[in-house]
C-alpha cells in the first residue's frame, strides 16, 4: 500500500442504495483500520487534537489501534467523547482534525473519523462499555434538550458525580441525531440509541415529552424540583423560509419538517402512521448538509430531485462527501440560481419555482462571494414539492418564559464561550447559542458549559 493515500472505505453501490435507507458507508474492518492507523506518524505536537472541538487524544487512540488494543482505543476516546460512533460518521473531519493533520500537507490526511467510527463500532459489537457511575456529590443539574450539546454536558457532569436529568420535548431522545440526520447516514437503533444508552449507564435520567417553557419553566426547575443549575441545549429547530410569493402553497415544506417526518416518524416506511407527500419532482433550495440530506431522502422516496443553490458548488457549505454521494445517486444541481416566487395552481398546489440566475460578486461577511442577480435571466423550474433548506433559528419559548435571560435578535440565548448566561445558575450551549452548526461543535460547547457548571457548584 502507498501510505500517501487513505485506505479506501467500502460503500453501498449508488444504484442499489437509492432504493433503500441502509447506511451508505460500511466503514473499516479490523485489517483496514490497522493499515490506516499505520499511516499516522505520531506527531510530537499533534495539531489534530487542537482541531477537534472536544480535544480527543487522537494520536493515542490511533496508536492503540495499531497495537491491536481496541479496548484501550475505546477507553481513550471515551475520556473526551460520549458519541464516538455518531461523530465518526457525521463530523466534518475534513475541516477539523483531518484538516490540520500534518500528513495532509503533502499526502492525504489520516482518516481520523473513519478510525473513530471503527473503534466505537468495535466497542458496541463486543459489548465493551466504559460507562461507570461516579460517587454522588449531592448536586442536581437539569439539562434542557437531549441533542449533542445536552448529552455531552450530561456525560461530563455525571462523571463528576452530579445527579443529572435531561428533559426532552419530543417522544424520543437524541435531538437532531434522531430527527435531522437520515438513517442512511446515521443508523438510529444501532448507533444513536446505543450511545444514548451508554450515557444512561452513567446514571443520567432522560424524561421525554417535557416541553421546558410550557410543561415546566426553568424557574420551576429551581424552585419546585430543587435543581442547583440548568443547562439549556435546546438546539435550533425553527426553520427559516424565503419570504417570497407563493410560499404558502401546498407542497412547500421546510427541510426540518420533511426530515423529522422521515427520520423520527419513519414516514419512509409503508407501515408508518405519518405519511409524507413527495410528488414526482422535488426542488430543494439550499446548499448545506441539511439540503443534501433532504435531497437524498426525497430521491429514496422515488422523486426526481434537483438542488437549487444561489452560489457555485465551490461555495456550498455541505460536506464534500455528502455532495459527492448526492451526485453519485442522481441528484442534479442548478447552481447560481435563486428562487423569487413559488408557482402554483388555482387550487394552491405547487407547480414550480420561478428563479433568477446569479453571478458572484465581492465576498460577504462569511468570506464567500456574494451572489448578485443577473437582470432579465428568469427561469422556471418544474416541481411538485419545494423543500426549503435555508437553516434554522432557536425557538424563543425558553427565553420568553425565563426572566433575566438575555437573547439576541435571532432568539438565540446569549452566553459566553464558557456557556455562562445573564441568569445566575443558567448555562447554555450548542445551536441555541451559536445558531445551526455541527454535532461536534455542539458537543464542545456542552463540555465547556459542564466545566463552568462544576465550578459554579463547587464540585
For this entry, give a set of tags:
single chain; 459 residues; alpha/beta; Fumarate Reductase Iron-sulfur Protein, Chain B, domain 2; FAD/NAD(P)-binding domain; 3 domains; five-stranded parallel β-sheet; 17 helices
Structural class: alpha/beta
Strand order, sheet with most strands: 3-2-1-4-15
- N-to-C span: 50 Å
- Beta-strand fraction estimate: 15-25%
Q: Regarding CATH, which class of the largest domain?
A: Alpha Beta
Overall shape: it is: globular
Total number of distinct structural domains: 3
Could you list the spans in which at least 5 consecutive residues all have pLDDT below 50?
none
Report the strand count.
Answer: 15
Amino acid at each position: 500500500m502507498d501510505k500517501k493515500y487513505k485506505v479506501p472505505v467500502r460503500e453501498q453501490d449508488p444504484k442499489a442504495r437509492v432504493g433503500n435507507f441502509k447506511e451508505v458507508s460500511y466503514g473499516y474492518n479490523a485489517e483496514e483500520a490497522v493499515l490506516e492507523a499505520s499511516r499516522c506518524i505520531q506527531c510530537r505536537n499533534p495539531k489534530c487534537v487542537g482541531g477537534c472541538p472536544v480535544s480527543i487524544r487522537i494520536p493515542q487512540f490511533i496508536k492503540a489501534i495499531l497495537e491491536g488494543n481496541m479496548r484501550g482505543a475505546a477507553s481513550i476516546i471515551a475520556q473526551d467523547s460520549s458519541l464516538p460512533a455518531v461523530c465518526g460518521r457525521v463530523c466534518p473531519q475534513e475541516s477539523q482534525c483531518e484538516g490540520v493533520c500534518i500528513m495532509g500537507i503533502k499526502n492525504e490526511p489520516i482518516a481520523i473519523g473513519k478510525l473513530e467510527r471503527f473503534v466505537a463500532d468495535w466497542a458496541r459489537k463486543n459489548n465493551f462499555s466504559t460507562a461507570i457511575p461516579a460517587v454522588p456529590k449531592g448536586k442536581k443539574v437539569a439539562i434542557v434538550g437531549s441533542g449533542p450539546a445536552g448529552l455531552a454536558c450530561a456525560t461530563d457532569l455525571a462523571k463528576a458525580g452530579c445527579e443529572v436529568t435531561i428533559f426532552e420535548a419530543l417522544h424520543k431522545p437524541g435531538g437532531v441525531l434522531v430527527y435531522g440526520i437520515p438513517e442512511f447516514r446515521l443508523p438510529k437503533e444501532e448507533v444513536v440509541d446505543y450511545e444514548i444508552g451508554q450515557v444512561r449507564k452513567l446514571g443520567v435520567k432522560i424524561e421525554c415529552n417535557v416541553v421546558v417553557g410550557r410543561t415546566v419553566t426553568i424557574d420551576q426547575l429551581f424552585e419546585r424540583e430543587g435543581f442547583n443549575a440548568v443547562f439549556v441545549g435546546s438546539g435550533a429547530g425553527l426553520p427559516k423560509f424565503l419570504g417570497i410569493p407563493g410560499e404558502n402553497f401546498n407542497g412547500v415544506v421546510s427541510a426540518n419538517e420533511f426530515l423529522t417526518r422521515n427520520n423520527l416518524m419513519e414516514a419512509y416506511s409503508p407501515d408508518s402512521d405519518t405519511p409524507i407527500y413527495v410528488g414526482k419532482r422535488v426542488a430543494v433550495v439550499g446548499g448545506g448538509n441539511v439540503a443534501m440530506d433532504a435531497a437524498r431522502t426525497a430521491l429514496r422516496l422515488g422523486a426526481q430531485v434537483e438542488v437549487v443553490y444561489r452560489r457555485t458548488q465551490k461555495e456550498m457549505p455541505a460536506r464534500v462527501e455528502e455532495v459527492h454521494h448526492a451526485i453519485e445517486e442522481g441528484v442534479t444541481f442548478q447552481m447560481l440560481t435563486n428562487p423569487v416566487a413559488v408557482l402554483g395552481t388555482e387550487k394552491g398546489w405547487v407547480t414550480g419555482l420561478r428563479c433568477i440566475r446569479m453571478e458572484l460578486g465581492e465576498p460577504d461577511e462569511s468570506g464567500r462571494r456574494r451572489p448578485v442577480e443577473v437582470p432579465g435571466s428568469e427561469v422556471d423550474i418544474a416541481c411538485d414539492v419545494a423543500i426549503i433548506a435555508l437553516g434554522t433559528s432557536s425557538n424563543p419559548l425558553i427565553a420568553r418564559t425565563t426572566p433575566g435571560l438575555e437573547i439576541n435578535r435571532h432568539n438565540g440565548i446569549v452566553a459566553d464561550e464558557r456557556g455562562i448566561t445573564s441568569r445566575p445558575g443558567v448555562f447554555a450551549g450548542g445551536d441555541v447559542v451559536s445558531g445551526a452548526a455541527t454535532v461536534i461543535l455542539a458537543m464542545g460547547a456542552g463540555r465547556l458549559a459542564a466545566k463552568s457548571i462544576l465550578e459554579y457548584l463547587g464540585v
